[in-house]
Amino acid sequence: MTDNPYESTRMSGSQFINGSSDGQMELQIVKDKVAPPAIALMVVGGLSILASLYGTGSSIYNMLDQSAMQDTMTQMKDQFGEESAVVQYLSIMIRLSQGPWMLVMNLVAMAVSIGVLVGAIRMSQVRSYTWSLAAAVLAMLPIGNCCCIGLPIGIWALVVLQDATVKQVFQRTAE
Domains in the chain: how many in total? Predict the structure, then answer.
């Protein structure tokens, strides 16, 4: 024991694997290791689900009521001219951002976000290594609304999941 008040008094995971303690303490140490990235993945998944729900509702609304889109296009044509490159570019962008294509993208993002949330919950419970890996990888994909924060959190989760102690405990809990 050192005089450092900030030093952890816990034993390392490898000390427990070598028979220094029972499996429950080892499980608790791994739960403590995976909890922070799992919680962060839950936040990313939850926020992305909320954003996808909003996007889905917005897409449906815009498909049913296209008068707002037509009003915007009329104003732009009056301001920039019918053949303006700005008007042509923005009309393409508006059509892509409002309609069936965006509805499909929001539904795909929602499915990915649900996968992240389910995997993060499984990771926090140390129940499924496959779902945990899938959640980390899905969070890093540029699909959905939280990919900018999902990338570093997914990398963090992957680093934690690659720890030998964590892998062993996941394998034991799967049995």
Answer: 1
User: Within the chain, what is the greatest distance between any pair of CA atoms?
Assistant: 78
Q: Taking Cα atoms as reference points, which of 27, 23, 29 lies closest to residue 11?
A: 29
Give the residue numbers spanning the domain of 98.
27-174
User: 12 lies in a domain?
Assistant: no
Quick check: is 22 in a domain? no
Per-residue model confidence as pLDDT tens digits over 79-126: 887 778 887 887 777 777 777 888 899 999 999 999 999 999 999 999
The whole-angstrom separation of Cα 122 and Cα 37 is 12
Separation between Cα atoms, residue 49 and residue 138, nearest integer Å: 13
Mapping DSSP to helix (H, G, I), strand (E, B) and coil, where does residue 172 land? helix
Please tell me the pTM assigned to this model.
0.74
∠ CA 149-154-160, nearest 5°, is 135
Average pLDDT on 30-41 reads 95
